[in-house]
Design goal:
about 400 residues, mainly alpha, four-stranded parallel beta sheet
Length: about 400
């Protein structure tokens, strides 16, 4: 179960997504989050892989984030029932796993019916709305868009998010109030989440440290918006409807869309085709540069390895020579000891021979003595016998 933060680009969705995360929900693997930029100094709190997936989905459907196509919810649901939906489910699971999650991507305003089918409506919606003139001024600084075109983008994204989220539990957050009184406005969100077992009340002081007024670079009033020459009555009616609500209205309550918005988006897409190709080429060159740098790094690692291997080989050869020298000394010692042993064995054999000869000589002398004594004894005995006769 999770939370989807819906809102037009430059509407404060990053700040609200971070605040929802402070209610105890996970933004996904930190290494996969889009980093901070000049225009979002406290971070986007947006998963790059999922943002890239949604942008490619828009491209496949004939549009892009800055030229949203007219969406057929039925076609999106049908697409989600096929291989594209399986790919999306796998990616979402890799990013968030089994955690209670919060996911923000302004493209979800357009492609939410696709993800409702993929995720089986297992989420609630925190919608964010901001004065469209402030959004237009912010888009003008960041992307160079004109005010009329930014108004058109705001209207298409907001209308699509209301239609796409129909039937889902939701709470509507006003960016101006988040900046003016973060504890109160985020407290409403926390109360909404706690009531659905999805979060807890964040620390008010931590909220004040994160959500600061200087993050709101432009500030305009409804009077300034309503008096702007490029503000259509349809767009003003839509913003008026939202500014008085604390949840998304029903699609049936929406005023009609400003005429010819799709013509403006199609023309923008046609006019920026070369720019897109240039960006793709630049990305390709950047990828080649990264591959080149990686190859150089690998070559440097290989060179160090070769140098280390040479040094190890030199050490090994020195050890071989040392062992050979030791072996030569041992061989000489062995030869000397063998010669000495042979000399000792020869001396032993000589002594044994001398001992055997001495024994034989001694035995012969002893036998002779014994014989003489025997002869003497036997001889005297014969004389005595004769005398007795």
């Amino acid at each position: 179960m999770g939370v989807v933060v819906l809102g037009m680009h430059r509407s404060g969705t990053s700040a609200v997504a971070r605040a929802v995360g402070m209610c105890g929900l996970a933004h996904g693997d930190p290494s996969r989050l889009m980093g901070a930029t000049e225009h979002n100094p406290t971070g986007h709190w947006e998963v790059e892989d999922l943002t890239d997936f949604d942008e490619q989905l828009l491209l496949d459907l004939g549009g892009k984030w800055s030229a949203p196509p007219r969406m057929d919810p039925g076609a999106l649901e049908e697409l989600a029932a096929g291989p594209k939906g399986e790919e999306a489910a796998k990616l979402h699971s890799e990013v968030f796993g089994d955690s209670r999650w919060v996911w923000k991507d302004p493209r979800l305003c357009i492609v939410l019916p696709f993800w409702r089918r993929v995720l089986a409506d297992s989420f609630v919606v925190v919608a964010v709305v901001r004065n469209p003139l402030e959004v237009a001024q912010s888009l003008g600084r960041r992307n160079g868009f004109s005010v009329p075109y930014s108004f058109a983008l705001w209207e298409r994204h907001v209308r699509s998010s209301i239609e796409g989220a129909h039937g889902l539990e939701n709470v509507l957050v006003h960016y101006e109030r988040v900046i003016d009184d973060p504890a109160r406005e985020v407290g409403r969100v926390a109360e909404f989440l706690v009531g659905r077992g999805l979060g807890e009340t964040p620390d008010p002081e931590a909220l004040r440290r994160f959500v600061r007024d200087e993050h709101r670079h432009v500030r305009t009033s409804f009077e300034q918006l309503s008096s702007h020459p490029d503000a259509s009555e349809e767009m003003l009616s839509l913003y008026r409807l939202l500014s008085e609500a604390d949840r998304l209205p029903e699609p049936s309550e929406l005023p009609p869309e400003t005429p010819n918005l799709q013509l403006a988006f199609d023309e923008h897409k046609r006019m920026t085709r070369w720019e897109d190709e240039a960006l793709q080429l630049r990305d390709g060159v950047e990828q080649m540069r990264q591959l080149h740098d990686a190859a150089l790094a690998d070559i440097e690692k290989l060179r160090r390895w070769v140098d280390e291997s040479r040094a190890d080989a030199a050490k090994a050869w020195a050890e071989v020579r040392r062992l050979e020298a030791e072996n030569s000394d041992l061989h000489e010692l062995r030869t000397m000891l063998l010669d000495e042993l042979e000399s000792v064995i020869a001396e032993r054999d000589r002594l044994r021979s001398e001992l055997a000869a001495y024994e034989r000589s001694a035995f012969m002398r002893l036998a002779a003595v014994a014989q003489r004594w025997a002869s003497r004894i036997w001889g005297e005995d014969s004389i005595h016998r004769r005398k007795r006769r």
